[in-house]
## 1
Amino acid sequence: MADIADTAASEATRCGIDTVEVRRIERLLAETASEDLNRIFSAQELSDSGEGPGRAASLAARFAAKEACAKLFPRELALGLIEPIDFSVARDGYGAPQVVCSARAQALIDQQRIRAIVVSLTHDRVSASAVALALAARSAAPIAGRILYYALPVRRAVILENLRRVFGAGVPEGEIKRLAQAHYAHLWRLFGEFLRFRWLSAAQQAAIVRTEVDALKHALGEGKGVLILTGHFGNFEVATIAGLARFPEMQGRIHFVRRAIKPRWLDALVTRRFRQAGFGVMSKRGSLDAILERLAAGDVIVFPFDQHASPPDGIEVEFFGHPAWTFKSLSIMALATGAPVLPAASWRESDGHHVLRFEEPLPPIHDENVNEEIRRNTRAYNAALERLILRHPEQWFWVHRRWKQVVRRRPAAKSTRYY
């Protein structure tokens, strides 16, 4: 146990401590309805604390742990971006306390490159205390990525600038560099998979991909069509073509909206592969009528959403805490048709297998002001992309200039002519 504690202490980047009087929790239990307690403690915490005389002390220790975890993020706590209730305590199979994070807490620790939060709890009859340690994440930089980082620095400045923008000053520069090198290694593997994939048999292709499509099947059952919110994650071509090949009932019902890529021969090759696999391909420009027609037929439209979009196609909304011009067409189509919007991502696991996962649909946001309604939904889509990117950050397309500035041209002044 001492070795484990020493390892955790050496990897800790920050520490939070809190103490709670047991009498405070006793008053809380006496004066608070059970349904209100559920807003403070998780169902697991209430169950683990039991019903006997030690319940207040047990819950006091858990409350101290929540406070200690929140103190790991003083800036976000002050801004109201995180609260103690975003953390709860569960027990593992050996009885050791484990921190369980809410979705927004998990996104925060992912963005700050925290691998885990470990806690230690103690209490007596008078008070309870907890200590929380944040353990730093350390990206693995394969040798291919390290070589390419120095030998072929294509857009290296862009990659580093994007990583610094997303992960901020709180992440050490060494970790930013390792993430960049891990991304170069991902691009190298992407290139090799692209060349090798076409020579694999159908059985070999199916064997390298795991597909989670329950959310997609359920959404298709609503009969309104489905809009897929995605980005340039993992090897999306391999995961999509091989993964969805297992579901012949979806053949001809999935259509990709995409920009042409350069060079032309590569764009033609990618397009041909998608069509041979039974997928439709639509241009991002001039395809609105065709998209609406396919949605009315109950089909699936896959919309890559992580690229820069200048006006009039885009609007400026927040992406990782910075203004970014983002396509507004997805929210317009979703609000006009009622089609559910499902986030989807793919990634490569450490053993080389790929995963394609469709998530639960995002709830639509309604507002009396149409422009504000479009803006709020577009921001929600960016927030969904943020969560997907942070799960496997080295496998997102960091070479893209996502935060390009838009120069707004002023209308030319009208000249006055005198006769």
## 2
Amino acid sequence: MKFVDEFRDPELIKSTVNEIESLMHGRTYRVMEVCGGHTHSIYRFGLEQLLPSSLEFIHGPGCPVCILPMDRVDEGLKLAAQKNVILAAYGDMMRVPGHSGSALELKARGLDIRMVYSPLDALKLAVDNPQSQVVFFAIGFETTAPATALTVLKAQELGLSNFTVFVNHVTVIPPMRAVLDDPDLKIDGFIGPGHVATVIGACAYDEIARDYKKPVVVSGFEPLDILQSLVLLLRQLNNGEARVENQYARVVPWAPNATASTVLAKVFELRPTFEWRGLGAILQSAVKLRPQFSQYDAEVRFADVLANHRIELEKDRIERGRGPSTPCGEVLKGLIKPNQCALFGKECRPEKPLGALMVSSEGACAAHFNYAHERVD
């Protein structure tokens, strides 16, 4: 474990923290870590407690479970309620609350909803259960989208007629733009997602630096990774620079992954728009299956079911004034901190989450609850 130990070496961490303090020069900076994995590491290792209070972390929309709007969760659960349907979902999605409960709760009520670790697990369910329609609830940024695309190609190769995908894959650059376009937010620089960059390449963030004059440092997830990335960001900010730097070069290439890019382009196309929790509709911020793969698209196969559900949901919302009861959007946009939510640690806890940010370990609220020094009794 020498490699991990090196990135958690107390003396290296201490000297890097000292360098950060020397680079602040009495200034105040707001840095957004886009990826939920970075949020988790920041809280887990107590990095906020090590750094000057004038250096503020803003927890961005980089947790795919957290940004999915409740209506979209409801649509996936509506598919699970259909006769002879098996809904397959990742573990985090099992606990995300919809208006009528989570997938885990609906499973307990009798729906056939199964947790899987990969889209290929869902495909195997279709092979093993030819009498059922298997729907895979696909979610994630560009990091997980290639696996879904390859699974669709495998389903085509096998000639399966009982397998579809409810596609909720999103892209990382448009929400970064949406955050920067919001006049209520002030972001000085970004810690760029490392896992996504293994697919899209560090070069993908060039447009953020170019168009918005904001520095982006692609970072690893160890404590020293994040601290080193802050050093690189502060140096740029102090020098009035705005470019992309790759702190995570041991893993992340500068150019996109050619194989992943090819399969993504073959199977997916951009949606005109997609709804993000807290950020609203963002243009070209998600993908869907291309028309030639429509037989594997749950939104095509179950179009009537989803259309009727949307009508019922809107009618119910008008009649009851029903809507999300948690301020997850404000947390995602950095307008409030997790512990500033009145529900945090009380009605909303990891074992019984009311909001999506308390579900995933990468969600800002769950990370804050599990690792922050202030404890809720």
